[in-house]
Amino acid sequence: MANSHEAVAEQFDDMPQQIEASTLGMWTFLATEILFFGALFLAYIVYRHTYAQAFALAGRHTLILYGTINTALLLTSSFTMSLAIHSAQEGKNKPLLGFLLLTIFLGCGFLLVKGLEYHEDVHEHLFPGAHFTRELPAPGQIFWVLYWVMTGVHSIHLAAGIGLLAVIVWMAWRRRFSSYYHNPVLISGLYWHFVDVIWVWLYALLYLINRH
Amino acid sequence: MTVLNPPIVPRKIYGLIWVVLLLLLLLNWGLAQLNLGPFNLVATLAIAFIQMMLMLLYLMHVRYNTPLTWVFVAAGFIWLVVMINLSLSDYLTRGAVAGRFGKSWIHETSVPPPVYLPKP
Hints:
The structure holds two protein chains of two kinds. Chain A is an all-alpha fold. Chain A is built from seven helices and no strands. Chain A has helices at 4-7, 15-50, 52-59, 64-89, 93-123, 140-173, 183-208. In chain A, helix 2 crosses helix 3 (52-59) and helix 3 (52-59) crosses helix 6. Chain A is elongated. In chain B, 68% of the residues lie in helices and 0% in strands. Chain B contains five helices and no strands. The N and C termini of chain B lie far apart (73 Å). In chain B, 18% of the residues are buried. The chains are: A mainly alpha, B mainly alpha. Chains A and B meet through helix 2, helix 3, helix 4 and helix 7 of A and helix 1, helix 2 and helix 3 of B.
């Protein structure tokens, strides 16, 4: 277990300052992520405004059951991630490991459901290109391009989050964290919750608002 | 040495937030089944916004962070608002500019969006 001398890097006065610095660093990274996804959201707004009718028709073809299950899975994974952080802060290693593994499990569940949904989407000819369904007007493809890009990029982020948590599990397994030092758990939690926040908006824009 | 930043949030609060988030999801899904006209859009976006704020403030500990962290958190969202605002002030006013000043280059180059109706 890291003692206080090793846990605080030499450029910091104490642990709270170190935690604040890494929190600021993470939020700086998340700001770039907000703008990264923001550009896609902007594209969605512009094209939804330009091709309102086509979007309304195309949006009805998203599979709302898969989307809703996935939202519930991610919200629950955020809950277990928060419990992992709580365990880390209290210095309880076993619950920390358990909740981290549960979070990873729920994340994998999300990707599995997403895969099933993608499979069905392809089957329904909802992948843009030559074989795109003829039931929808041409600009409906723009909605589906945004669907594939936005959910695809989000899934990559989630897979990265699972990889990140796997590293944290490994560190926790090696007993690297204590009630004093658990900075990496806090920072990974920020990333995990952020990916969840993005999904909440994707769910609203891709699955819900074009139903009527 | 036991000063912690952020403080330990009680498990009860995490549990409460989780339940509220799931209830909001249920409400959001339920409202999408009803035809409420333009209110559908407003309700869905409002619920998503509330869910985001709950996650930011409690799960991501923004509420418990220092004011300096608040500035960093706000910065990302402020730039997002700037980007969307400036871009839409272009896209949403193109027709208005052409109409007001008569024939302009905008009028000539912009193609009105075609009207697509569902095939019978």
